[in-house]
């Protein structure tokens, strides 16, 4: 598993306490996809369908009021001190993205965008993934597709990102959204992310 994927799932498992086991199962399937396919004899289409259902269930997961309150209080305490730790901001943003309320999700996306622009450069890929999740939950599929394509521009073999991209496109198709949203999906990568990809590729 790449360091980016380990970081991605470390964050996911760290914040998502309510349905921890489900996320572990998703990671296991994603990381051993080839072996599962060969041993079980399940067709490729069926396996991909299962993974898409898993991604859908993740998108429909909601934060508990207890978790949201805990991370919100920690974030505001650090805000009062004038020094918010990026980890605290991320945890609060991810809780907001998992809210049932669009206003909360939008606030979470804004905090995640701030981390993307001002946070650790090595974590930018992870922030892009969560921005794609948040935008998908807001049904802003054009933005979600741009974010996930930018992520895949840097790490094209990432299974979770591939699954999320497929889920976004599936929802767009169901809702009749097409055209420039899909054709121009990689536009975000042009403004700075290409440079990030080149820098990461050299490591």
Automatic annotation (TrEMBL):
Domain of life: Eukaryota
Transmembrane segments: 179-201
Cellular component GO terms, alphabetical: mitochondrial outer membrane; peroxisomal membrane
Gene3D superfamilies: Tetratricopeptide repeat domain (1.25.40.10)
Alphabetical list of CDD domains matching this protein: Fis1 (cd12212)
Membrane topology of the entry: Single-pass membrane protein
Subcellular location: Mitochondrion outer membrane; Peroxisome membrane
Record GO biological process: autophagy of mitochondrion; mitochondrial fission; mitochondrial fragmentation involved in apoptotic process; peroxisome fission
Listed InterPro entries: Fis1, Fis1_cytosol, Fis1_TPR_C, Fis1_TPR_N, TPR-like_helical_dom_sf
Keywords: Apoptosis, Membrane, Mitochondrion, Mitochondrion outer membrane, Peroxisome, Transmembrane, Transmembrane helix
Family named by the database record: Belongs to the FIS1 family.
Name of this protein: Mitochondrial fission 1 protein
Species per Swiss-Prot/TrEMBL record: Amblyomma americanum
Phylogenetic classification of the source organism: Eukaryota, Metazoa, Ecdysozoa, Arthropoda, Chelicerata
């Amino acid at each position: 598993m790449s360091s980016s994927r380990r970081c991605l799932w470390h964050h996911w498992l760290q914040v998502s306490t309510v349905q921890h086991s489900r996320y572990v199962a998703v990671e296991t399937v994603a990381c051993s996809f080839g072996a599962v396919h060969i041993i079980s004899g399940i067709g490729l289409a069926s396996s991909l369908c299962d993974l898409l259902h898993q991604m859908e269930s993740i998108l429909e997961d909601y934060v508990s009021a207890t978790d949201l309150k805990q991370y919100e209080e920690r974030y505001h305490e650090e805000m009062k001190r004038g020094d918010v730790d990026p980890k605290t901001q991320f945890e609060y943003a991810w809780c907001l993205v998992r809210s049932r309320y669009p206003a909360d999700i939008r606030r979470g996306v804004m905090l995640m965008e701030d981390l993307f622009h001002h946070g650790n450069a090595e974590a930018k890929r992870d922030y892009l993934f969560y921005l794609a999740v948040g935008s998908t939950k807001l049904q802003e599929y054009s933005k979600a597709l741009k974010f996930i394509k930018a992520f895949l521009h840097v790490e094209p073999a990432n299974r979770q990102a591939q699954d999320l991209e497929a889920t976004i496109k599936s929802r767009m198709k169901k809702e009749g959204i097409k055209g420039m949203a899909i054709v121009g999906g990689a536009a975000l990568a042009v403004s700075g992310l290409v440079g990030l990809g080149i820098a990461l590729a050299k490591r």
